[in-house]
């Protein structure tokens, strides 16, 4: 088992009792130290001269201030007019965070194969979200239904196989209930590795690592991985709307973990959505920071915190349309934050006369889109569409990964699709040409401005004492 915080929380199940157990754990640790014959006193066992929590605590205090102002403002909204004015404001802020989006180009969809199954067909689809940048997807179409049907975009979390992983469960189940479902591969997963090597391997590592490797240079050119993920999803909805089987009046989105992230961001920018079910993501930024919940590039909305936005706002931008928040009691995305966000949304939806359209499902499990959560989503979507009364999930077998591939080798080749590094290389060269040559004197100016200070501060880090072993002090001389 990896020695990290997420696995500790996942496997120990003690996170909820941390405060109550802390004193006893400290006493036990001291007793063990005193009795241990393996403990060697000396320089090696002194606490390191570093600042382990100063920056963290500084930002927590800042975010708590922002969070309180945000909460006070939401509960300070008293009328429908207040709520609508606030919504117009946050929609503009969200667009500024996730955009600007590129111009839409023809999708140029290609169907590379089909699977005929009992009750539904799976089409293997590749479409272009940007010029030369391809998205691999599976389209689940119910059989024997001649009329237009409600549709759902499925977004995947951090799994290697993405669309062909266990996320098939909700895709197959929704299709059996009469929904057209498009489930797409994320950047850096499934058939869309951005740093591919022979044998379907990544030169970095699939998922989180690829997201960060591609996300950092995107930031340098004024773009974001969050924006790229959202744009792929927007174009996925374009594809759904292009299909004659789809009823445009009912288009939903759901996903878990990283898919919950994409679902949440999409709620903030996609007006064609009529319902949404983000799972295991929505909480509060304050809770994430307090828990040291580190996330990768696409899970942050650039400039969002500076603009006073929180997860609440991306859902509120979609109000009063129906949304169900799905959380798990033992998730590392703090369910207390989910509850806080839900209560604010209840207040907000009530102002818009649609309190019944915001719901919360809390499971008893760990992080994941578990069957009870999926069934809560089925039932919620059925309430909206009235297409089915069946909220239960039938038993069925998952397809093999390779049977759902859109490409022969399970990876878009460089001849088939551009990659983010390739696109950014060209973009960086173009930006450099526009910028022109930068002189050494001009380079010095921002640095001199940065380091200009009226008073020079000298400092030293004091020694730790036994009582201060988790703290250190900065002495200004």
UniProtKB/TrEMBL annotation:
InterPro entries: AB_hydrolase_fold (IPR029058), AXE1_dom (IPR008391), FrsA_esterase (IPR050261), TAT_signal (IPR006311). Residues 122-290 form the Acetyl xylan esterase domain. It comes from the Bacteria. This is Acetyl xylan esterase domain-containing protein.
């Amino acid at each position: 088992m990896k020695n990290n915080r997420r696995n500790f929380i996942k496997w120990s199940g003690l996170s909820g009792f941390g405060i109550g157990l802390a004193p006893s754990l400290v006493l036990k640790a001291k007793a063990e130290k005193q009795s241990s014959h393996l403990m060697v006193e000396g320089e090696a066992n002194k606490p390191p001269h570093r600042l382990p929590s100063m920056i963290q605590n500084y930002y927590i205090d800042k975010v708590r201030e922002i969070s309180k102002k945000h909460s006070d403002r939401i509960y300070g909204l008293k009328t429908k007019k207040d709520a609508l004015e606030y919504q117009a404001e946050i929609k503009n802020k969200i667009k500024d965070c996730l955009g600007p989006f590129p111009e839409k180009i023809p999708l140029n969809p290609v169907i590379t194969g089909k699977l005929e199954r009992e009750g539904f067909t799976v089409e293997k689809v590749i479409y272009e979200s940007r010029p030369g940048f391809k998205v691999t997807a599976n389209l689940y179409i119910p059989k024997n239904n001649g009329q237009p049907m409600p549709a759902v975009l499925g977004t995947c979390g951090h799994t290697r196989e993405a669309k062909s992983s266990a996320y098939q469960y909700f895709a197959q189940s929704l299709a059996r209930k009469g929904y057209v479902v498009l489930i797409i591969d994320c950047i850096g997963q499934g058939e869309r590795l951005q740093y591919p090597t022979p044998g379907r391997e990544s030169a970095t590592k699939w998922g989180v690592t690829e997201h960060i490797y591609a996300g950092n240079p995107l930031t340098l050119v004024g773009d974001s991985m969050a924006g790229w993920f959202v744009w792929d999803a927007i174009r996925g909805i374009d594809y759904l709307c292009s299909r004659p089987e789809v009823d445009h009046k009912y288009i939903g989105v759901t996903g878990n973990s990283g898919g919950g992230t994409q679902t949440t961001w999409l709620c903030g920018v996609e007006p064609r959505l009529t319902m949404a079910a983000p799972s295991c993501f929505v909480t509060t930024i304050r809770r994430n920071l307090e828990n040291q919940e580190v996330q990768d590039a696409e899970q942050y909305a650039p400039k969002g915190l500076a603009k006073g936005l929180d997860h609440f706002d991306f859902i509120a931008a979609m109000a009063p349309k129906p949304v169900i928040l799905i959380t798990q009691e033992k998730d590392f995305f703090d369910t207390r934050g989910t509850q806080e966000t839900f209560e604010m949304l209840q207040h907000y939806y009530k102002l818009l006369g649609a309190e019944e359209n915001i719901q919360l499902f809390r499971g008893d499990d760990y992080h994941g889109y578990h069957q009870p959560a999926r069934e809560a989503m089925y039932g919620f979507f059925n309430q909206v569409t009235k297409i089915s009364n069946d909220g239960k999930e039938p038993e069925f077998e998952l397809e093999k990964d390779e049977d759902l591939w859109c490409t022969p080798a399970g990876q878009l080749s460089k001849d088939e699709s551009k990659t983010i590094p390739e696109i950014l290389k060209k973009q960086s060269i173009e930006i450099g040409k526009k910028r022109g040559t930068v002189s050494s004197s001009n380079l010095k100016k921002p640095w001199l401005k940065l380091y200009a200070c009226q008073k020079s501060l000298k400092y030293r880090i004091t020694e730790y004492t036994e009582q201060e072993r988790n703290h250190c002090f900065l002495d200004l001389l």
